[in-house]
Amino acid sequence: MTRRLASLILAGQMLGTLLLAACDRPQEPGSEEGQAVVARTSESELPAWLSPTDGTDPGRWLAGREVGHPLPAGSEPVRTMQDALAQAKGGFIEDPRMIANRTAQLGLMLAEIGKTERYALLLTGFSTVAARRGRHKSLYGEMCQHYFNTRARGVDHAAALALLADRFAPLAGDGETP
Known about the structure:
Elements: H1 2-23, H2 58-67, H3 76-89, H4 96-112, H5 119-131, H6 140-152, H7 157-167
Helix pairs in contact: 1-6, 2-3, 2-4, 3-5, 4-6, 5-7, 6-7
């Protein structure tokens, strides 16, 4: 059992590393010559991931990914996700598109180990942890990885957030109060 858990954690870490590398890979020099950048959106299907040129609203995409199909703009789940992403934007370095991609990735990884969680709860929980750092923004992807590893060890949601709050606490002597 322990060996299987270790294998799952290692596989999750490898997948996370690959996705991080793919999302943030710099363009090769000259690769943009003669190519127009076209934003794309879809009303009938959800892309696997939001690309830098994707015109899809990250909140709408993430809400749809969670339920498995596109949702109408302005629906309650979409507004909830948009609000959660707006809250997250203030505490993290990544943009809402990357935060949405990382949340979907984390959701899949948690589901694979039998710990399905609501995406908006993940976002608001992480945002609360990040807000304690004040002007010092956090890395969302890093927080996701620590959260996954903690949950994979059997720690529940609330306790995992408490451990993240300790790990990402403001530095002593930075002049800010938590």
